Amino acid sequence: MANEHMAPDPLVRAMEVTYDRLFAGYAKSPTLRKIWRDAYGDDFPENVEPLSYVTLTDLRRIASALGVGPGATLVDLGSGSGGPSLWVARETGAQVVGIDVSTVGVAQANARAQAEEVADRVRFHVSDIATLPMPVASVDAAMSVDMLVFVPDINAVMAEVARILRPGARFAFTAREQHAASATFGSPARPDYRPALRAAGLVMETYEETPQWAERQLALLRAIAAAEPQLYAEMDAESAAEFMNWALGVPKQMATTRRVFGVARKP
Predict the structure, then answer these.
(1) Per-residue model confidence (pLDDT) at position 3
(2) Are 144 and 77 in contact (CB under 8 A)?
(3) What does the radius of gyration of the chain's CA atoms come to, in whole angstroms?
(4) Strands, sheet with 73-77, edge to edge from the N-terminal-most edge strand
(5) What count of Cα atoms within 13 Å lies in the side-chain half-sphere of residue 236?
(6) Among 203, 147, 173, 153, CA closest to 59
(7) Which of 187, 165, 163 is nearest to 176 (CA)?
């Protein structure tokens, strides 16, 4: 893992800057943590602090689909501040390697792993997921939560997933499909992940819309928009502006998007 590097792709760099601000702001905001908990209710994953739309149900499905246990190695693509990775590590006992472009998110994730005393088997690294720093057929599973829509070259990423997985290993993910490029984040159109998965040689086992995703997202985003004064009081202005851009921009695109859960297997 010593040869970590950042890709020069402008979209990757833009997402690094955006998520550095979002992770830094979230860490300072008790208002945001309450908004997430209220929006998701009983399906809120405690101790995860998700900067995504992931639910407790999603995490349980991911852990179950991957079928890993103690001694297995799991890679999390776009691991952010580490909440979902750490949840799966606690649930399964697996070793986890998280990869993300955000230096702030990775620093927060490693600090959480230290605080939870699992840093001996859960580590996070700054790198571009289109060029993963793992050998061929070296990992037992891979996961990703709500970030594949931001990848500039989805075919390259899926090829990397297929490259690092051992035969029979699975990749489980949640992701947003979108039928047009996002004006909010500058991310490309991504109407369906299955062609890229199949082109990489992976076999689809599950691909379906996640239940009640739109209601939860709208509740979350409306609450963030309504909390604008509190957010600007709790964090720096650049971070607050990123949250407001998210909260006001995403609802306008939801008519042409949906959120999916998928599982693919390497033959």
Answers:
(1) 38
(2) yes
(3) 17
(4) 122-126, 95-100, 73-77, 139-145, 165-178, 257-265, 203-209
(5) 9
(6) 173
(7) 187
DSSP E strand stretches across the chain:
73-77, 95-100, 122-126, 139-145, 165-178, 203-209, 257-265
Whether 236 contacts 27, CB under 8 Å? no
Distance separating alpha carbons of residues 69 and 16, to the nearest angstrom: 31
Query: Which token pair is 246?
Result: 């998210």
83 CB-contact burial (10 Å; exposed 0-12 / middle 13-18 / buried 19+):
buried
Instruction: Give the per-residue pLDDT at 106.
Output: 97
How does 156-166 read in b/e, with b if 16+ C-beta sit within 10 Å?
bbbbbbbbbbe
Q: What is the pLDDT of residue 238?
A: 96
Which residue type occupies 257? T
Question: Kind and range of the H or E element at 190?
Answer: none
Q: What pLDDT is stored for residue 5 in this prediction?
A: 42
Closest to 160 (Cα-Cα) out of 168, 150, 173, 171: 171
- Domain 10-265 fold: Rossmann fold (3.40.50)
CA–CA dist 246, 218 (Å, integer): 11
- Return the exposure string of 187-218: e unless at least 16 CB atoms fall within 10 Å of the residue's CB, then b: bbebeebeebbeebebeeeeeeebeebbebbe
Query: Token pair for residue 237?
Result: 């202005």
Q: Which residue ranges of the chain lie beneath pLDDT 70?
A: 1-8
Q: Where are the domains of the chain?
A: 10-265
